[in-house]
Design goal:
Oligomer: single chain
Largest sheet: 4 strands, parallel
Number of domains: 1
CATH topology: Rossmann fold
Number of helices: 7
Structural class: alpha/beta
Radius of gyration: 16 Å
Strand order of the largest sheet: 3-2-1-6
């Protein structure tokens, strides 16, 4: 099921990375297939990924500090940063342990995104890319994300989720820290690309064909 998605995702990611001097990718915790990172590593070894790539996690499995070996930050360093030979400061994760409230975490993370980017960029994504579910920050309705609505996070409530989004994430979804205010970040055009199978508005057939679907 994931293989066709991974193959298509890698091509879309590479296409997007080739369009900017400082490419950045947002990685969705628990939803992005590990094979996607493996294929991106292979692409990096073929010099198809430009220098200066930055990867940002959208959330954290649990309220662990980034240095904790079980944190998603540690996973990114081991499974993404090292194979892609990224600098330590090229990997960004929201520090859910350092901020008591979701809005404080959101402000801190948004500030780090702005610092990493240098300046906010507009949405350069093509309509075709957005239709395929590879969403650039700022695309679609402001402040929306498969994990919930920004308004929920701003008010300190658990994000609401559609049944399909939960199904797409699978049984591991229960260990994702939903208090981390990832929904507020998609309205901020600091990163180039978001890859998240839970946001994928298509179904993949047995032969690898794409079947229109969606939440």
């Amino acid at each position: 099921m994931h293989a066709p998605f991974v193959r298509l995702s890698v091509h879309l990611v590479l296409d997007a990375l080739g369009g900017g001097a400082r490419p950045q990718v947002l990685a969705a915790t628990g939803a992005t297939p590990a094979a996607l990172y493996a294929d991106l590593t292979a692409a990096a070894n073929r010099a198809q990924i430009p220098a200066g790539l930055r990867v940002f996690a959208l959330d954290e499995y649990w309220r662990a500090p980034p240095e904790h070996p079980a944190s998603f930050a540690a996973y990114l360093r081991a499974r993404v940063g090292r194979p892609l030979q990224l600098a330590v400061d090229a990997l960004g994760t929201p520090d859910t342990a350092a901020h008591a409230t979701p809005d404080a975490c959101a402000r801190d993370y948004a500030e780090r995104l702005r610092e990493a980017r240098g300046a906010a960029t507009g949405d350069r994504g093509s309509r075709a890319q957005r239709a395929r579910g590879v969403r650039r920050a700022g695309a679609g309705a402001p402040g929306t994300h498969p994990l919930g609505r920004a308004s929920d996070v701003d008010r300190g409530r658990e994000p609401s989720r559609s049944p399909r989004a939960g199904a797409a994430r699978g049984p591991r979804a229960g260990v994702v820290d939903q208090r981390c205010p990832v929904t507020a970040l998609l309205a901020h055009p600091s990163c180039d690309l978001v890859v998240d199978p839970a946001a994928w508005p298509w179904e993949v057939g047995e032969g690898g064909e794409l079947i229109p679907g969606g939440p």
